[in-house]
Design a protein that fits this description.
The complex is a heterodimer of chains A (353) and B (177). Chain A has 13 helices and two strands. Chain A is mainly α. In chain B, 75% of the residues lie in helices and 0% in strands. Classes of the chains: A mainly alpha (353), B mainly alpha (177).
Chain lengths: 353, 177
């Protein structure tokens, strides 16, 4: 361990956290714009700081795009009254938002978002058990929701918490099983090595398409997004686990949900779509120059943002599952499918060797 | 600067971290069963989660990354969530304080003594100069050992788990017959 390592790690952590926060803020805007587009509306197009009206052409254009809306949203969350209802379990009520944000932010640590800049690898922690680490951390995220439901001491959040714990466990199993064929093919748990394998053999989605489908659907369930947003289900449970929350505490749940989306999109890109590689212009090899390194980071971001848009698009196109359908899908469809997938992959690898 | 570097490379940080995690593990484990501030089952369960997490920190210090990850994934991530699920569904109230019975106390002390003596024996027989475990290919090595040298115990544990699973299904489905 030397000082270079510590300083560069701190810089990387600061930049990654900043970028993730930025993506989160603007994916909320993207969500509102895309939903408006799907429902034939305009979406946010008024918010602007006062001096914007003195800027010709560019000012009205940016205002139309709603670029300033996330800033206004953030300010609103910060200055709103932070209300604590009577009868809540205080400690858990304060703890729950933090417990849901921390795992969401921790997941990004092992994801290789680029090859290298100079001598620095573009990953915060190059763990040998990268995939297991992500699954472990993701599985901790459920505590935030369960505790929020428990702490609120009222019926609707409680239902939300209970539903969430059952849903998370069910889909975590399918998710874990769906990745095993990938591990069988690559033979390594390190995310960087998985990307390296893909640059030589082609994207893994071609080798294990079923794995990708199960992984994607399970990650929708893990992030509590429609069609699996039963823990919040506005129409039945008011707001589910965050019914009693207001102001910044509510915003933290929001942050956790979108950070989880970022993390799942990044995982999908890393595991199935070649991470920072593209099969042409020599982008599939670790970068030799700074420009190539930066370009590869942008390739990764572009792929990730594509999946973010898929997340948002699905939310506004598909209705919510009923609870028994959700459980049925998880246990009786995806789990057997994932097991058969493991078997087929193993036999295929055995025949080839 | 030089001195700090020496401290870091000499393993002082790891020593400090070991004591931090060990203290956390013990403290949280005690708070699971004997929490003076709260008798709520949910609080006990949450402290058990903390115990498991700090234990996986101890595994990390031993460079057993796979075990640390699995510890969090299986125990903290799945088993404890199920515990919480059941506690919430059963709607357990705060447990009342009970008087400690003499027989229970004696039995508890005897079993703690037995476990403690096993620990002392096994710690005393440790070779102090044992080499640290290898870092690379650790998951691979572990898998290979499980399926070659330790196949029989591994299979026995699997069968045991299967039996438990069938038993649970039988017990919960009995009314339908």
């Amino acid at each position: 361990m030397d000082w270079n390592f510590i300083i560069f790690s701190l810089v990387k952590i600061a930049i990654v956290v900043g970028v993730v926060q930025g993506i989160v803020a603007y994916s909320v805007l993207a969500e509102r714009k895309i939903s408006a587009w799907i429902q034939d509306r305009v979406g946010p197009n008024r918010t602007a700081p006062p001096f914007m009206k003195f800027v010709p052409v560019l000012g009205p254009f940016l205002t139309r795009l709603g670029i300033f809306q996330p800033l206004a949203d953030g300010l609103k969350f910060l200055v709103k009254e932070d209300f604590t209802p009577a009868g809540v379990k205080k400690i858990y009520f304060w703890l729950a938002p933090a417990v849901s944000v921390i795992p969401a932010m921790l997941t990004v640590a092992v994801i290789p978002f680029g090859s290298n800049l100079g001598a620095q690898k573009m990953v915060i922690a190059d763990l040998n058990v990268g995939i297991l680490y992500t699954f472990g951390i993701v599985s901790m995220g459920v505590y935030g929701i369960v505790l929020a439901g428990y702490a609120a001491n009222s019926k609707y959040p409680f239902f939300g918490g209970i539903r969430s714990s059952a849903q998370m466990i069910s889909y975590e199993i399918s998710m874990g099983m769906s990745v095993i064929p990938v591990l069988l093919i690559v033979g390594n748990l390190n995310l960087g090595q998985i990307i390296g394998w893909q640059s030589g053999h082609g994207w893994l989605v071609a080798y294990a398409p079923l794995s990708f489908i199960i992984f994607m659907v399970a990650s929708f369930a893990e992030t509590n997004r429609t069609p699996f947003d039963l823990p919040e289900a506005e129409t039945e449970l008011v707001g589910g686990y965050h019914t009693e929350y207001s102001s910044m505490k509510f915003a933290l749940f929001f942050l956790a949900e979108y950070s989880n989306m970022v993390a799942s999109s990044a995982m999908m890109v890393t595991l199935f779509f070649g991470g920072w590689t593209l099969p042409f212009w020599g982008l599939d090899q670790p970068a030799q120059s700074l420009a190539m390194g930066v370009l590869q980071i942008f390739v990764f971001l572009a792929k990730m943002l594509f999946f973010m848009v898929v997340f948002i698009w699905v939310r506004w196109m598909f209705p919510r599952f009923r609870y028994d359908q959700l459980m049925d899908l998880g246990w009786r469809t995806f789990l057997p499918l994932a097991l058969v997938n493991i078997l087929i992959t193993a036999v295929w690898l055995w025949l080839r060797s | 600067m030089e001195q700090i570097n020496n401290l870091v490379n000499g393993g002082a940080v790891e020593d400090v971290l070991f004591y931090v995690f060990a203290a956390l593990t013990l403290l949280c484990a005690i708070l699971v069963v004997a929490n003076p501030f709260s008798r709520s089952p949910v609080t006990s369960a949450m402290f058990l989660v903390l115990t498991i997490i700090s234990m996986s920190g101890l595994f990390l210090l031993l460079h057993a990354f796979f075990l640390a990850a699995v510890q969090i994934l299986v125990y903290a991530g799945a088993v404890m969530v199920l515990f919480l699920f059941v506690i919430m569904l059963l709607d357990l109230k705060e447990e009342a304080r009970r008087k400690i019975k003499f027989f229970g106390l004696a039995a508890g002390l005897v079993s703690v003594g037995i476990v403690f003596s096993i620990f002392v024996k096994s710690l005393a027989s440790l070779q102090p100069e044992a080499a640290g475990p290898a870092l690379e290919g650790e998951t691979y090595a572990l898998g290979k050992l499980l399926f070659t040298q330790y196949t029989l115990p591994f299979e026995i544990v699997s069968v045991l788990l299967l039996v438990a699973m069938i038993g649970v299904i039988l017990l919960s489905k009995r009314k339908l017959e």
